[in-house]
Structure formats: structure tokens, C-alpha cells
Amino acid sequence: MAVAYIIILTFGTIQTTNAQQQASTSTQMLITPEYIEIPQGENFTITINATNVDALFSWQVVLKYNGTVVNCTEAWIPSNNVFSGHIVNTAGPEYGKDVYDGLDFMMFTGTLQGEDEASVINGILLEANFTVKEVGSTIIDITTESNPARTGQYAKFYSHLWDPNIEEISFSSNHCTVKVAGSTTNLPPQIVLAVQVPEVNTSRYFALTGYVPVGTPFTYAFKGYPVIFNASGSQDPDGNITSYLWDFGDGNVTETREPVVVHVYNSTGQQRVVLTVFDNGEPPLNSTYRFVVVVGLLLERFDWSPLLYGLAAVLLVAIVVSAGRKARKLRFKSKVRRG
Fold it and tell me: Cβ distance 230 to 260 under 8 Å?
């Protein structure tokens, strides 16, 4: 039986929240419906809306889902979309697969021409059609910058809203849970993880980061500096998360009910970290994610200026002394000639 796991290693804060928890005046990118239960082999359509955008110039929607359970067969921008009445350039749909977690994604973009903009209270960005492939369950998620789809170490695709100055408009989002008839009613939790490391002051430190494992989710950390592990974006589709078990790879194991922990590594090298999240189902289910923390060093830069000033002073004294010696030699030779 195929089960969806959403596993994301990112930097920064988690922006994805349940739409029902947001204030009615906030900017949102929303999927409707939020829950679908459907027989195997059937089709269904979802709509993605934007709400409360003062000046919208461009949007991009990236949907992420378990491609073994459902398949996105078509995506389009309906005539009554947010840019209705404007001249619009579109790109998509484009399809891919996340190289880290194996989930499929679909990307679609719409942009106004020139310096145009649209004020949106509640409007449609796009609609997408899916076909159910096999019994199981999945979450169709709107990716964000902190929860992207990735086709490589640096190739990240995420949803955005842009104003005419090409500045991102922050938004909250929801997700759509799809359960195929005949699948289990007890779904495992999904892991969304953000890792925050100290910012490096390059004017003060050299950062020695070490070897990067190929094809493995990883992040850099530094010996003796705190690392924040944030799994607060994780969720259980049909219940609540009860605990988080962290194995930091250096012999330290922590189990907590809180989704955010802080850990300090006291030795360099690769540390294989394992996060296991448990839910309150009957029986309790869990999801596990493994990634690598590469622990390097921050070396304080040496201030060479006192030495350079000292060297300059020594050279100046040497030049003065040398000039004085030459002057004395010239005077001595002059006296010898007169004698």
C-alpha cells in the first residue's frame, strides 16, 4: 500500500499553515477542496486561489504530491482567473520529481505584461486535474521557499506571489488530503524540517565546511555553535503528532513533545541525523527521515595590521639609518681628499 511522505530539508522559517488558522485579511494561497475521498481510477479537480493581494504582477504555483497514488494529468488557467481582462504570459504546466524525497511536482506560472498589476480579493490562479492510480493516500501541498521541490542541490522550485517591483509577497497556505477508497484510515505523520545555523561574519571568520555528501540531504553546522532543528511544520493528516525523537549522530538522543530543539556539535565531521515523528493513531504510526550534518570550523581571521604597521616602521628606520650611514661615508671621503 502506497503512503505519502512529505519530507523537506530547508533553511529558514516554515510559512505553510492551515488556512483555517489565518486571519481573513491575510494573503493566502489556498487549495480547495481540502479533503477528497475517492475510488481508485477516478478523476478529481482542485482549484488554487489567491486572497487579499493588493498589487499582483506574477504568480507561480508548484504542487507537490505522491505520484504513485495520484497523477496530475492537466493544469490550466480558467477564463475567470485573477488576471482576467489583462494581457498575460503563461508557462506550464511543467512536471518533475523531487530528488530528495521522491515526490512528484507540477509547476505553472502566470505573469502580466509591462508594468500592469491586479488587485485581488479572492481569485483563481489555476485549476488542476488528477487521476487516482492506486489505493493509498497523499497530501497535495503548495510548496514555499522553505518547503521547495528540488531537482538538484541548487535547483529549487517553489510557489510565489510577486508585486510589480518583483518583490515577493508573503503568504500562508494549506494542503489537500487525498484518500483513495479502500486505503487505511490511519495515516502516518508527514515531516517538514527546517535547520537554522549561525550566520557567518566573513570579515571575521574563515568557514571551513568540509566534504559534501553527494545525493544526500545535508546542511552545514559549525563546531561549538548551536544549531536549531525546527520540525514545527510537520503534521498528521488524521490526528496529532505526539513526540519527536532526535538522534543527532554524535551519541546524543533526545525525545521531546516540542518540535524545536537546539543542539551543539563538539567535534567536526559528518554526523548522520535521524528524526522520527510519532502520531496518536491506533496503532500509533511514525515517519522517519535521515539526513547528514557536516560539522566544520569557524576560524577567526588574524589581524595583520599591527604587524604591517610594525614592518613599515622597521623599514622606515632601516631606510633612515642606511641614509645616515651613506651621508657619514660621503663626509669621511670628503675629509680624506682635502687632507
Answer: yes
Q: How many angstroms separate the CA atoms of 106 and 72, rounded? A: 7
**For residue 145, what is its C-alpha cell?**
521557499
Q: What are phi and psi of 174, to 5 degrees?
A: -120, -165
Q: Cell digits for 287? A: 515517519
Q: Which residues pair with 300 in a beta bridge?
A: 205
Q: Cα separation of 140 and 71, whole Å?
A: 11
What would the pLDDT profile of 268-322 be if each residue is shown by its tens digit? 999 999 999 999 988 899 988 888 999 988 887 765 555 555 566 667 666 766 7
Cell representation of residue 313: 616602521
Q: For 193-300, give the CATH class.
A: mainly beta
Q: Where exactly are the structural domains of the chain? A: 14-184, 193-300, 305-339
Closest CA to 18 of 30, 6, 7, 27: 30
SS3 54: strand
Domains 14-184 and 193-300 share a fold: yes
Look up residue 147 and give its three cell numbers: 518547503
**Class of the CATH domain delimited by 14-184:** mainly beta
Closest C-alpha among 233, 123, 217 to residue 172: 233
Quick one: which of 229, 232, 234 has its CA closest to 285? Answer: 234
DSSP 114: T
